[in-house]
Amino acid sequence: NDTKVRADNIVPVDYTTPSLNQAEGERYELWDRLLNELYGVLKSQLSVKEMDQLRVKQREWIIYRDNKAKEASLVNEGGSAEQLVYLGELANQTEIRCYTLVNDYMK
What we know:
Blueprint: H1 2-8, H2 17-45, H3 48-73, H4 82-105
Helix pairs in contact: 1-2, 2-4, 3-4
């Protein structure tokens, strides 16, 4: 929840494309750091078999996340919003995955 509050409070310096991209990039980085932290905790909580299964699911999820972000960004392909949408979708999907790991795997 702390990450959610911090991510929601990231605001661009101004509303130029570079500033908006930077803000979305920071939001993605926050969620990605938490995702890696959660994954590390799960390594110590899950059995070897459970961790192996999660590792496979995580690799599948990374492909899914990247594809979702690319698909979303193609609506603005070639435009100034393409990168912004891509970063935003990476952040959104990573946030969802963090909550999934906590709710479905944490003990």
